[in-house]
Amino acid sequence: MLIVMKKGATENQIQAAVAAVKKRGYTARPIPGGDRVSIGVLHNKGSVDAAHFLGLDGVKEVIPVTKPYKLVSREFKQENTQVKIGEAVFGNGTMPVIAGPCAVESQKQVLAIAKAVKAAGAKIFRGGAFKPRTSPYSFQGLGKKGLEYLTRVREETGLCVVTEVMDVDTFDMVEESADLIQIGTRNMQNFSLLRRAGMSKKPVILKRGMSAMLQEWLMAAEYIMEGGNVNVILCERGVRTFVRHSRNTLDLSVVPAVKKESHLPVIVDPSHAAGVRDQVFSLACASAALGVDGIMVEVHDHPEEALSDGAQSLYPGQFADLMEKMAAIRTIIEAP
Ligand code: PEP
Ligand code: MN
User: Fold this and answer.
1) Which residue's CA is the nearest one to ligand 1's atom 10?
2) Which ligand 1 atom is the nearest neighbour of the CA of 184?
């Protein structure tokens, strides 16, 4: 259930409504909106009687929420959520681009790639210090050292950094170093990790699970929001299908479907969907044409020597061309 306060409702009226919700044994979660505050009612076991709240001062209306997910849903919040990281805003109609290698390999490597992607217009640098690899024999990431290299990237380039967190044990360390925390595909339903992310003050990118339905993905985001972290960005990165011509199948149709169901920003990672460099360019352009809230692309200056995902990493020159092309596409779709 959602309690919608009147425009200009006072803080006292909002607090009185919160107290009324708590008195009944439910959780109250105020959601600041553009011009009015709403209060989400959570943890109710059956239906809640609207009459308890309708008569309170400052309450405009009480709306039942029919979806299983609540805080992430458009029923709860009509306007788009904007997530700000440095000068990048996800969800305000711009399309910040996140770029960098799959894995942090050395200080020299991340600095060189960060400078190149920054010059091309990327707003956030990506690089995994803890890598979830299919094989235990593959490069697992530099761990803490990798986080230190990312810190230096921020200091030298001014770019914000995003890196993946793989487990609760290393969460504190990642949280301290990252401006934006990534929860990967393989962990989309790691509920203890989602709960820990819910307690974080840092924004979170939640990648879609390998074969997750939209509802499961949104429910995973609900875990983070339920914990109190409202800064969640959803990332479509391709789902597992029967095809062999690409690593995964980029599900672009999920973008408008998410937009209808949720107010959260949604970005696209064409790199992990494609798995091969020559498909990344067109998938990124198609994503830009859809009006996504951001793009995440893997870029490597020596992809043939990369320790992870070299085949799908763009050369810096290709990335710069892609940035120009996407900017041109955006001007077309933004034209009145
Ligand atoms: C990554 O971003 O490097 C990554 C491992 O992505 P995903 O979780 O989408 O496979
Ligand atoms: Mn990768």
Assistant:
1) 185
2) 8
State the ligand closest to the CA atom of 186. 1
- Ligand 1: centre distance to CA 261 (Å): 24
Measuring from each residue's beta carbon to the nearest atom of ligand 1, which residues come in under 6 Å? Answer: 102, 128, 132, 184-185, 207, 237, 272
* Atom nearest to 296 CA in ligand 1: 2
Provide the residue ranges of all domains of the chain, joining segments of one domain with +.
Answer: 2-63, 83-334
Helical spans, DSSP H, in 24-106? 51-54
Looking at the DSSP bridge assignments, the partners of residue 239 are 249
CATH 3.30.70.120 given to domain 83-334: no
Looking at domain 2-63, its CATH class is alpha beta
Q: By the 8 A CB rule, do 160 and 125 touch?
A: yes
Q: Distance between CA atoms of 217 and 262, rounded to whole angstroms?
A: 11
Q: Which residue's CA is the nearest one to ligand 1's atom 9?
A: 185
Nearest Cα neighbor of 226 from 204, 209, 211, 207 is 204
pLDDT in tens, the chain (336 residues): 999 999 999 999 999 999 999 999 999 998 877 788 999 999 888 788 899 999 999 999 999 888 888 999 998 898 999 999 999 999 999 999 999 999 999 999 999 999 999 999 999 999 999 999 999 999 999 999 999 999 999 999 999 999 999 999 999 999 999 999 999 999 999 999 999 999 999 999 999 999 999 999 999 999 999 999 999 999 999 999 999 999 999 999 999 999 999 999 999 999 999 999 999 999 999 999 999 999 999 999 999 999 999 999 999 999 999 999 999 999 998 877
Nearest alpha carbon, ligand 1 atom 6: 184
The pTM (predicted TM-score) of the whole model is 0.94
Ligand nearest to the CA of 210: 1
8 A C-beta contact, residue 7 and residue 70: no
